[in-house]
Amino acid sequence: MEMKRKLKQPKSIKKRRSRKAGAPPGTLVHIGEKMAENIRITYLDYDEKDMVEKQVSKIEECFPFKSTPTVTWINIEGLHDVETIEKLGKEFDLHPLMLEDILHTEQRPKIEDFEKYLFIVLRMLSYNSETQAVESEQLSLVLGPNYVISLQERVGDIFDPIRERIRNAKGRIRKMGPDYLCYSLVDAIVDNYFSILEKVGEKIESMEEELVTEPTESILQQIHSMKREMISLRRSVWPLRELISGLQRNESALIQESTGIYLRDVYDHTIQVIDTVESFRDMVSGMLDIYLSSISNRMNAVMKVLTIIATIFIPLTFIAGIYGMNFENMPELKQWWGYPLVWIVMTVVAAIMLVYFRKKKWL
Q1: pTM greater than 0.85 (yes/no)
Q2: pLDDT at 22
Q3: What whole-number distance in Å separates Cα of residue 314 and Cα of residue 320?
Q4: How high is the pLDDT of residue 128?
Q5: Along the chain (363 residues), what's the average pLDDT of each consecutive run of 10 residues?
Q6: Are residues 162 and 184 in contact, defined by beta-carbon separation less than 8 angstroms?
Q7: β-strand 71-77 against 147-152: which pairing, if any?
């Protein structure tokens, strides 16, 4: 039931969509759930020698980094503050349609080239251990000449290892440009898909074991919920193939040739994720067939037992029917051995039939 409620479209989204209907293109309206109470803005500014990290209260504090020679990563958590997004767009000269896509949190993963910057939309996944469901949020990335802007729906992400590498100057990230930082963020998201799929795989295996041992109506509901979850996963993952391929083929000066090697590695990981999702989809579809087959087999087993019982009682009913008739000329009725003889005959007949059924392996 939790999955059903989560997958249903919230009424507030429908209302905001209807409110936006008829508005001019580029009208900024937040469409989606409010996943953060307060918007949080942080920046990381670094080069090979120095690094500055700070959480700010206003987006204006990030504006001086627009034209610095260092690499700046501006991260915004929470998209419900339309005014902040609008100020960001004006300062960095972001297209109104792109800002509209950022605030509309049901975008399909994609990449768009605006010459001065690249706009990337991804789905960032997380696993809720309480509901055992995969949760999704939209992540928007803006890659500029010396900056990367990431905008996400809720507070908290999977980018802490990247932050640690920047703080401690580990690896080559401090020596590379913003395109490498953008690659690192995309790579972290794709790698996180593997851990999500691992947990989904464990859930599917658990469902399969329960399905084989004791198929119930509750497991059928879990199968239908899992089918919807796999559809949602597929929508999040499949467009990634085109997105990463577009980054590789892009001739923008914002992406250095040295970063292309790493993008090929992400592309390979994306193919593995897609193959895994497709395998899980086939497994879930097969589970429904297994459920129907299990229910049918159980019904057949019950019907087999009932049929054997009915078959055994057919000759017994015949014998009882004969001696239940009220004719005078039935000599066995007046003999003292008549009653036990009938019982012996009926028992022998039943025993012979049981032996025969067992020999035929019907029992």
Answers
A1: no
A2: 57
A3: 10
A4: 83
A5: 39 48 68 77 91 91 89 91 90 91 88 91 87 87 93 88 90 90 93 91 86 79 86 87 85 84 91 91 85 82 87 87 76 77 88 87 77
A6: yes
A7: parallel
In the prediction, which pLDDT does 2 show? 38
Instruction: Say what the pLDDT of residue 118 is.
Output: 93
Half-sphere exposure of 345 (CA within 13 A, CB side): 13
Distances (CA, A) of 12 to 18, 33, 155: 10, 8, 21
As a whole number of angstroms, the distance between CA 237 and CA 239 comes to: 6
Going from the C-alpha of 182 to that of each of 26, 194, 200, 220, 353, the distances in angstroms are 25, 19, 27, 42, 77
In whole angstroms, what is the distance from residue 44 CA to residue 53 CA? 5
Residue 186 and residue 159 in contact, taking contact as beta carbons nearer than 8 Å = no
Report the alpha-carbon angle 218-223-226, nearest 5: 125
3-state SS, the chain, equals: CHHHHHHCCCHHHHHHHHHHCCCCCCCCCCECCCCCCCCEEEEEEECCCCEEEEEECCHHHHHHHHHCCCEEEEEEECCCCHHHHHHHHHHCCCCHHHHHHHHECCCCCEEEECCCCEEEEEEEEEEECCCCEEEEEEEEEEECCCEEEEEECCCCCCCHHHHHHHHCCCCCCCCCCHHHHHHHHHHHHHHHHHHHHHHHHHHHHHHHHHHHHCCCHHHHHHHHHHHHHHHHHHHHHHHHHHHHHHHHHCCCCCCCHHHHHHHHHHHHHHHHHHHHHHHHHHHHHHHHHHHHHHHHHHHHHHHHHHHHHHHHHHHHHHHHHHCCCCCCCCHHHHCCCHHHHHHHHHHHHHHHHHHHHHHCCCC
- Contact of 105 with 171, CB cutoff 8 Å: no
pLDDT score recorded for residue 13 = 43
Q: Rounding to the nearest 10 degrees, give the CA dihedral for residues 46, 266, 6, 217.
A: -150
